[in-house]
Each structure stands twice: as structure tokens, then as C-alpha cells.
Amino acid sequence: xxxxxxxxxxxxxxxxxxxxxxxxxxxxxxxxxxxxxxxxxxxxxxxxxxxxxxxxxxxxxxxxxxxxxxxxxxxxxxxxxxxxxxxxxxxxxxxxxxxxxxxxxxxxxxxxxxxxxxxxxxxxxxxxxxxxxxxxxxxxxxxxxxxxxxxxxxxxxxxxxxxxxxxxxxxxxxxxxxxxxxxxxxxxxxxxxxxxxxxxxxxxxxxxxxxxxxxxxxxxxxxxxxxxxxxxxxxxxxxxxxxxxxxxxxxxxxxxxxxxxxxxxxxxxxxxxxxxxxxxxxxxxxxxxxxxxxxxxxxxxxxxxxxxxxxxxxxxxxxxxxxxxxxxxxxxxxxxxxxxxxxxxxxxx
Length: 349
Known about the structure:
The protein is mainly alpha-helical. The protein has a single domain (about 45-335), classed as Up-down Bundle (Na+/H+ antiporter like fold), CATH 1.20.1530. The chain is about 85% helix and about 0% strand. It has 17 helices and no strands. Helix 10 packs antiparallel against helix 11.
């Protein structure tokens, strides 16, 4: 009787809220549906050509809108915290690639060579922007520094990731980087991004007010790439080459990489003498990898490779990092709030 009179708090509400933390979000569900659709109804022939053109247009529009949204003032203002930014960039573009190479003898037996090539590509990617900032804010970290670090990582990744991929491919026995691929990255990603920066003075506020449009293009371009990539991979026999034990091995590989990155960034920040707020920023910006940048780059850089196997590690890592960092951010926030309460009690006494 009591709970029926209180409609706001039914007895199953705490259970539902607990389960919701571990259920995939809408975008992850859309990715699953897209992969399923590509597995059952892969596009081919003329249809595949049309989807490839639409994908290229969506990717160019995505980076144009990102360029129009990114505030140059925020970047310039945040650049004064150079030690923090260098630490984040070192984790993103040095620690992860080294982990991918050094752990290859241990981790590569768990997956196929094509999947581990995707893992190596994952290690070269820039940090996320939206989720890094969101988790930093949730954990009570240094949000302005997170904006600067995540944005700088995203911009520099356009240049650094192709170069790192070249080194990774050579070490993996796949040959060096194709300079035509770098030119394609510049043309398809950097040029629209710079054009967006130029147009920011005219459309920047409009883009900021219409964030839903950017989110739609962001997620839509990823879904298009995933559909075309997995369609081609399915036609080449992807799921016959990747049994369930191999998928389980890929989950282990991704979990190991993320766990090491979280531990190194956390205790490395403390060893370097950063404040708690800066430590939070380093942890969440330095341990992330961008699905939004990775999938479009993979399409350009790995033309001729089994693209489905290349992007699958990124998709799984994306979900693992979101679930893990959501729990970690809440724990950080609880510690900060507990510390603030203690300070408040000490001040009052």
C-alpha cells in the first residue's frame, strides 16, 4: 500500500536504475542492429557504391561541423596547462602504441592476425572529445583542461594517427604507410575541418545551438561506415573466420589495454604531482580512444584490408570504456564530495 501511494518510487525503481547502468546505450544498440543488418542483408554492387559515396559525404560533413563547433578561444585558454596536455598526449600516442607492440606476443594468440591489426590501429587513435569531457565533468575534474586536451588530441590525430599506423603496419609485417592514404586523410578529414574552422565565425553559434544535428551526423556517419565495412567483410566470410572464442579473446585484449592505461594514467599523474582535479582529467582523456575518428580513418587508411576486422576492436573498446569509465567517474565524484563535506565540517568546527 505504501509504495502504491508513492508513484515516484516504486519498489523496482532501484533495480531498474541499477540495471540501466550496465545496459548498452541507444547508439550501441544501433551499432548492434547495423552489424546484424549487414550480416543478414549485406550491400553489394551498385548499392555498395552508392553507400560508399554517401559515407564519404557524411564523413566530410562530420569533420566540417566539428571544425565549426570547436572554439579556438577555449583551446588557446587551455594551452597554458602544458604539462597536463603533454601527459595526455603521451598516454594517447606513446603509451598505447607501445602497449600494442610490447604485448603482441602475449595478446595476439587470443585473436586472429586481422583482428590484432585492428587492435594496433586502435592504439594509434586520438582520444574522444564528448565522452572525455562528460566523464571529467561527472568526476569533478578540470573540465577546461579536458576540453583543450581532448580537442588537441582529436586535431593532432589527423596527422599523428596515419604516421603511427605506418609504423604499426611495418612492424606487423604489412608494409609501410601508403602516402596516398595520408593524402586522402588530408583531403577527406583535414580540409573539411579547416573549412569548418574558417566558417566558424558565421555558423559557429548555429552549430552550437543545434548540437542534435552534430550528434546525428556523428552517429549516422559511423553507422554508414560500419554497415558498408561489415557488408564487405561478411561477403568475404568474416563470421566464418571469427568464432565466438576469438571474440572472447578480443574482449580480453581490449580489457587488458584499458586496464593498463587507467592504472598508468592514474598513478602516473600522482607521481608527477598533479592535483586531484588534473588527475581526473588525465585519466579520462588519456585512456579513451575515439570511435568517431577511428571508423572514418580506417575506411581511408585500410583500403584493401578486411575493414570489418579492423573496426571491430574499436567498437568493442568503445563500449568497454564507456561502461568502465561511468563507474570510475561516479567513484571519483563520491570521493570529491566526501572530501568537500569533511572540509566543510572542519571549517564549521
